[in-house]
Amino acid sequence: MQISEIFSNTLLKGQVAIVTGGGTGIGKVIAHQLGSVGAKLVLAGRREEVLKKTEDEFVSQGFEVLTVPTDIREIDQVENLVTQAVNRFGKVDILINNAGGQFPKKAEELSKNGWDAVIRTNLNGTFYVTQAVGKQMIKQGTGGAITNILVSFLHRGAPGIAHSVAARNGVYGLMKNLALEWAQHSIRVNSIGAGLFITEGMQEEMAAADPTFIDNTIKAVPLRRVGNLEELGWLAAYLSSKASGYITGENIIIDGGNSLGHGITFFPY
Questions:
Q1: What is the CATH topology of the domain spanning 16-200+228-256?
Q2: HSE on the CB side for 58, CA within 13 Å?
Q3: Closest CA relative to residue 15, chosen from 44, 40, 42
Q4: pLDDT tens by residue, the chain, 269 residues
Q5: Whole-number Å distance between alpha carbons of 34 and 25
């Protein structure tokens, strides 16, 4: 990963950021961007060895990093995450809710266990972390920025992932409500509606499942490309900074125009 030159390296100087699912993929990219502009990082994830590898990589680049193995579905582990962050860095200023998971399944074939698993992680887990961090931010009395990573097709749906879309719409509603409820504490709550971004390993997995998926998706994107992961990191950094200090309760779409509903860029007449 290259350190970004888009923002000043002091944009988030002195700020402490918790990133769930911060050891790999989108979470890792966002964490790297936050670290490159001065934030102290607290990375949470279920796999300790993955977190350790990312910690070593980030520390070698001069970032201040704490890793805390955490299953966001377990409240005691979530509370430990916040406690460890405060013990190490003294406060929490930023939360990136990135952890989640899904699997493709037709709605009529989805089991109760499958439904519950996605709801527990994507909705319940996100709430548990947000609640714990929100309590800490309110206690600190200095405000904060919370950003949830969602999907650009949130309100359109997508075949095969009804369980995930339901959970993420729950997070969307939570974002709206908490933006109102916690505004009095100067805590801003927003979300990012991400389109197609290819993370490590995703290209191979998608190609194995459907070799035409990426190309077909790109055809429906007016900008005719997938997103660059750095672009997602830049948006997260912006929403975490004072530059977005008057923005709360918003879902910022970053999908190359895909959510506009069609891929037509010029009518043939």
A1: Rossmann fold (3.40.50)
A2: 30
A3: 40
A4: 655 678 999 999 999 999 999 999 999 999 999 999 999 999 999 999 999 999 999 999 999 999 999 999 999 999 999 999 999 999 999 999 999 988 889 999 999 999 999 999 999 999 999 999 999 999 999 999 999 999 998 888 888 899 999 999 999 999 999 999 999 999 999 999 999 998 876 776 676 777 888 888 889 899 999 999 999 999 999 999 999 999 999 999 999 999 887 544 444 43
A5: 15
Chain centre to alpha carbon of residue 256 = 18
Contact 35, 58 (CB under 8 A): yes
Nearest to 190 by CA among 139, 100, 259, 254: 254
| Spans of all domains in the chain | 16-200+228-256
Q: Annotated active-site positions, please? A: 172
Q: In this structure, are residues 102 and 118 in contact, taking their beta carbons and an 8 Å threshold?
A: yes
- What does the block give as tokens for 6? 């888009």
Q: Please work out, in degrees rounded to the nearest 5, the angle formed at the alpha carbon of residue 231 by the alpha carbons of 94 and 266.
A: 135
pTM: 0.93
CA–centroid distance for 39 within its chain? 16
Q: Work out the widest C-alpha separation in the chain, in whole angstroms.
A: 65
Tokens of 256: 């190359």
